[in-house]
Amino acid sequence: MIGVNRKGEVWVFAEQHNRQLEDTPIELLGKARGLADTLGVKLAAALLGDNVKELTNKLIHYGADKVYLVEHPLLQFYQATSFAKVMTGLIGKYKPQIVLYGATVTGRDLAPRIASAIKAGLTADCTDLQIGDHTTAADKKLHKNLLFQIRPAFGGNIIATIINPERWPQMATVREGVMPMPEPDVKRRGEVIIEKTELTQQDLPLEILQEHKQPKKVNLKAARIIIAGGAGVGSKENFKLIWDLANCLGAAPAASRAAVDLGFIDRDHQVGQTGTTVRPSLYIAVGISGAIQHQAGMTQSKKIIAINNDPNAPIFNVAHYKIIGDLNKVVPMMIKAIKEKGIKT
Amino acid sequence: MGYNCVVLIKQVPDTKRITGEVMNDDGTVRRSALAAIFNPEDLNSLELALQIKDQFGGHITVITMGLPAAGVILRDSLFRGVDDAILITDARCAGSDTLATSYILSCAVRKTAYDIVLCGRQAIDGDTAQVGPQLAEKLGIPQITYVEQLTELNAKTITVRRNIGNGWQQVRTKLPVLLTVTSETNESRFAAARKMMKYKNAMTPIEAERVVRGQMSGVGGQGSGVSETQIKKLVDKKCNELEERGLLIKQWDLDSIGADLSWCGLSGSPTKVHRIQSVVLTDKESKTIEPTTNGVSDMIHELMEDKIIA
Known about the structure:
A: Rossmann fold, 8 helices, B: 310 residues, two-stranded antiparallel ribbon, 13 strands, globular
């Protein structure tokens, strides 16, 4: 750990694959800009890879004041030990006070490895980040301007605010879509700091023999209207109701984790804390009870309609329109009403 | 051939089963009322270890850091086919975050022989998925997370298929290695009746002590005149008997695993809780729509007026 460093910068790990930046680090830059401004320090991105210098401009346009760039042929493909070694070196040298990572497959593989190596604190899957003060109960010591790392826990039944008063940097991971995508400013200028690294094959114990990527079946983040089905839909066959309603509105079909786990639809369609976070103009929740982890993924929707035959379903607490009834009757009614009004998609 | 597998497991409150019975009047969850269960993804990592043993032979040790009640999941593991079960229990573990927990577990794992260390991806109470990678770092071994399938295993290397979100990777590395396993990897097997018969009386020393004390208070009531020294003798006797029958579950504390106390418990945890807010479900301004043709039609009309629907 590096200890408290008030002049430390705020950093975002700029995850990239095949020389393309992931969305999450860009979303994080948007949020981190505000954190850095509140703290009165600079915002930087840490970019590791091989031949990735062209990405520095994008990072600066999205708000970074600086980019720490580490290029090496052995950094072309991600693995935990090599990337952790480089990041640990950078953190030790420059002593940032905050380091943020996307809670992607890579981020969740990398961040804890770094936290363990530098013995610093790490909080996973934060849904919000703020700056605040904390007084330790035991010795009444005041710690000012800490990073409040806010996340649901205990199966989503509590919201915990976690802090790391002394074992800095304060590190956190945040899932994709939780922070909104910022607007780029192509006139922004920043500094690129080139760092060298000594890496050998010893630092890469994993051999990646094969990799197969499938593009996502649906782009929920871009959808203006989303129809989501939950366990209440009952079966994969009955999920046709969701598809039909989605088709007549030109909407994207989606699902709660329960529906995905039950095999009603592919995981690519999952909305929620462990799925995708969405903010469409209209979100229709069909047969979804509305557990906190699901709510975390959709409460930023402009208008929410909830259909459920359980009047106590938590989803009704966040719905603008509550329909307590049988989805097998209500959804066909909606489809009929939409077609009658001649809504074209 | 045979491989030494060490599986880290955790007893967790059943956070997925929040019913009215465990709710307080103010809408918050009464945590102490939740049933304690075997962390679901640890059952999947245990299953992978058992499949490795089925196919290649070897030895499986399960280790848990927990309260004395965690003896239940250690017994459950014996019922499913592990060879050795170890409880790390110590009041000084209390308040450990993932860093302190992974440190404590690393001290224990180092006392065993291991080729493959297995963890569930995450526990359903903390939900962090951090202990696995942190433990691997402390042991100085490579980690492969989100393991979906074991492809190949030989004396030198292991090859697995790994889920990378929107696809998969085939990854190979030398042993020893740490793997994290998800609920999608396999279906965990049921306890075997014969093993249940064999191990149903397996217990930790602290469970043995509770049994002995329970018997004492049954005999003469409180203050029955049985001294602490006598109780200790009886507990030792019981533990020796259990050990002879292969039914004594090992129990370690922080001293026996050589842990540096400054890295354990609250003092060893960089992260602290500033505040917990219970999620209290309150009413929000909203419209109730009748589940009728007219009700639905009016709602659609309103959405069109507001230009939510084109």
